[in-house]
Specification:
Alkaline Phosphatase, subunit A; 4-stranded antiparallel beta sheet; alpha/beta; 2 domains; 8-stranded mixed beta sheet
Length: about 425
């Protein structure tokens, strides 16, 4: 009896070893090292308002086309709801407590939280990305990539450490400006025939309509709870969602213009193109608007679309949970770079090939009014509010919008996830 048990265990072990060997073999067979890399990132990008993710409105026909040539990840989560901390996580494959960019607090000149027209703000306690963590751009530069970054964000600036590893980096010309400006700069650079292989990063802020360019085009949306004038705020939320869709359609058109330019230059087919949401955007689900204030799913659930060179694995869908911290390791593996050491993220190449491991640890942090931390697994999610010690627990398999706190009913599972937060962050 024992011999049969040992034999069964041996076969299982051999099977795992074979699978691990095949995983490495398949990754090598892709043989895509030296491909051009285009990384497109956008603040406040919600997957549930994108056509390829099943949104009922045709808001994003260009992203829909890109998704048709790509692998789509349905459950990707940002490591912070604050854009600067999330971007740092994308570039360093780390969570905020590892890379040190913890998010700044917005304080408007009237002393409040209202983003009314003309009420400019400053960011307090915003920490730059320090030299201790290697960035994606540095990793690609080390293996001979020509690198260029164009951003309209006031967070992802040279001053905040995001220019490291870039040969060309422009953060002032399009500051808080429209996608048209960013795409124009990228087009100008591409027209100069950069030496291949190249890495191009385009960062967009058009969905963050706290800022002048978005206000001018789409009008100012309400940004605080007091915007609800009556009842449950359904009419206000519908109006905000409609304005969000309007901005989204504009952004999609500009991203489409960039993709069309790549096609016209003969660069689309053979390039690795990654579209990654930086963070989500609350549209009234928990009584607020915007981002960088909570770790509820509407602020941290983001789209991730990866088009491999040659459109390999197109029309592919991955439903396992992944993290935006996995973006840099994935790009580096495809490009033939060295694996990043001491990081949180892992390459998703195996997941694209259908042989990835599940589940992954998913963590997110937010520093707004105190520190909020979240740990997610496929079925459950725990949020810990460090300032008050309060916990919230959700069955996100049934309640993805986190309407019912089931902490009392699921104390054992909540304790198990809380221990993982303690192990990761404390």
């Amino acid at each position: 009896m024992k011999s049969k048990l040992y034999l069964s265990m041996l076969w299982v072990l051999l099977g795992l070893l074979v699978l691990m060997g095949l995983k490495g073999l398949f990754a090598k067979r892709m043989d895509l090292a030296g491909s051009n890399v285009i990384l497109i990132t956008a603040d406040s990008l919600r997957p549930d308002h994108l056509a390829p993710y099943g949104y009922k409105e045709n808001t994003t026909p260009n992203l829909d086309k890109l998704a048709g040539d790509s692998t789509m990840f349905y459950y990707c989560f940002a490591q912070s709801s604050h854009p600067d901390a999330a971007l740092a996580g994308i570039f360093t494959a780390s969570v905020p407590s590892m890379h040190g960019v913890l998010g700044g607090k917005r304080v408007f000149k009237d002393g409040g939280e209202n983003s009314a027209a003309g009420n400019s703000f400053q960011l307090l306690d915003l920490k730059p990305l320090g030299p201790g963590k290697k960035t994606l751009a540095e990793g690609l530069s080390e293996i001979g990539y020509t690198t260029a970054g164009f951003t309209s964000s006031g967070f992802s600036t040279k001053e905040n450490g995001f220019s490291r590893g870039f040969n060309v980096f422009e953060d002032a010309a399009c500051l808080w400006d429209s996608a048209k400006c960013v795409v124009g700069k990228a087009d100008q650079w591409l027209s100069g025939s950069p030496k291949p292989p190249f890495f191009l990063w385009a960062q967009f802020t058009d969905l963050m309509d706290d800022f002048p360019a978005a206000k001018a085009r789409h009008g100012l949306r309400p940004h605080i709870k007091q915007a609800f004038s009556s009842g449950d705020g359904a009419d206000e939320r519908a109006a905000v969602a409609a304005r969000y869709d309007s901005k989204l359609a504009y952004l999609d058109g500009e991203i489409g213009r960039l993709l069309d330019r790549l096609k016209a230059l003969g660069l689309y087919e053979g390039s690795l193109i990654v579209l990654a949401g930086v963070n989500g955007e609350e549209l009234g689900e928990h009584g607020n608007y915007g981002n960088g204030t909570t770790v509820y799913n509407e602020q941290i659930h983001v789209p991730l679309i990866i088009k491999l060179p040659g459109n390999q694995y197109k029309k592919n869908i991955v439903e396992t949970m992944v993290r935006q911290a996995d973006v840099a390791p994935t790009i580096l593996e495809v490009a033939g770079g060295a694996a990043m050491s001491g990081v949180f993220g892992v390459s998703l190449v195996a997941d694209i090939q259908g042989i990835g491991a599940d589940p992954m640890e998913v963590y997110s942090e937010c520093r707004a009014d105190g520190l909020d931390q979240a740990v997610l697994e496929r079925k459950y999610k725990l949020i810990f509010h460090a300032k008050t010690g309060e916990k919230e627990f959700f069955n996100i398999e049934k309640d993805f919008r986190e309407k019912k706190n089931t902490l009392k009913e699921k104390e054992m599972d909540a304790d198990r996830l809380y221990k993982r937060i303690v192990e990761r962050f404390h």
